[in-house]
Amino acid sequence: MIGACCVLGDDVEVGEDSVLHPNVVLEPGCRVGARCILHAGVVIGSDGFGFATVEGVHHKIPQVGIAVVEDDVELGANVCVDRATLGETRIGRGTKVDNLVQIAHNVRVGEHSLLVALVGISGSTHLGHHVVMAGQSGAAGHLTIGDGAVVTAKCGVTEDVPAGAMVSGFPSRPHKEWLRAMANLFTLEELRRRVRSVEDALRQLGGKA
């Protein structure tokens, strides 16, 4: 099913039983598998964000790869999946993506992953299978997020994440470590007061001596 105002470029492939809601754009050469659901405004295969800066001028690097969406993937409204600079950007089978998610060039998302609203994944980062990235989380480029990892809401991933790990905060830290740090943060004012009272008492003792 192809909704109103969809655009399918040259050499695009769409598998059987897939549904393209209105205003979906599939740029030339890109592929969508079977039983996929692409909600309104999805763009597959727009140019990756690649520029070389020479003497203050930004020169566009040609983006000549493609984007591939495997079978049984659902992409929410206004999701953007950039084409690769070279090779493929690939969304694995069974992955579900919420609205307003940005997937950059040469990213690979493993099978059955979940990307929640406003997630952003920078170029050439690879996600394993069954990865969860919660709302407004993001990942820097050229990283690996292992199988079954969980990235909590608003987390900024700045280094590789081991398989099965849960990370939080910015820069990303193991979730339990981050929770302890946050708990300690909100007790700092009381600790400061206690340290000041101890310093005042020591000064008074020194004066009496």
Radius of gyration: 23 Å
Biggest β-sheet strands, sense, barrel:
9 strands, mixed
Which percent range describes the beta-strand content? 25-35%
String of helices and strands: EEEEEEEEEEEEEEEEEEEEEEEEEEHH
CATH homologous superfamily placement: Hexapeptide repeat proteins
Helical segment tally? 2
Q: What is the number of independent domains?
A: 1
- In the CATH hierarchy, what is the architecture at level 2? 3 Solenoid
Net shape: elongated
Number of beta strands: 26
CATH class: Mainly Beta
Percent range of helical residues: 10-25%
Low-confidence stretches: none
Q: Which structural class do you get from the secondary structure elements?
A: alpha/beta
**Distance between termini?**
89 Å
Q: What do we call the CATH topology? A: UDP N-Acetylglucosamine Acyltransferase, domain 1
Question: Would you tell me the overall average pLDDT?
Answer: 96
As laid out across the biggest beta sheet, the strand order is 3-6-11-14-17-20-23-25-26
Fold and architecture overview:
The chain is α/β, with parallel strands linked by helices. The chain has one domain: Hexapeptide repeat proteins (UDP N-Acetylglucosamine Acyltransferase, domain 1, 3 Solenoid), CATH 2.160.10. It contains two helices and 26 strands. A hairpin with a 2-residue loop joins strand 8 and strand 9 (57-60). The protein starts with 6 loop residues before the first strand and ends with a helix.
List the helices and strands and how they pair.
Layout: E1 7-8, E2 13-14, E3 19-20, E4 25-26, E5 31-32, E6 37-38, E7 43-46, E8 51-54, E9 57-60, E10 66-69, E11 74-75, E12 80-82, E13 88-91, E14 96-97, E15 102-103, E16 108-109, E17 114-115, E18 120-121, E19 126-127, E20 132-133, E21 138-139, E22 144-145, E23 150-151, E24 156-157, E25 166-168, E26 173-174, H1 175-185, H2 188-208
Parallel strand pairs: 1-4, 2-5, 3-6, 4-7, 5-10, 6-11, 7-12, 10-13, 11-14, 12-15, 13-16, 14-17, 15-18, 16-19, 17-20, 18-21, 19-22, 20-23, 21-24, 23-25
Antiparallel strand pairs: 8-9, 25-26
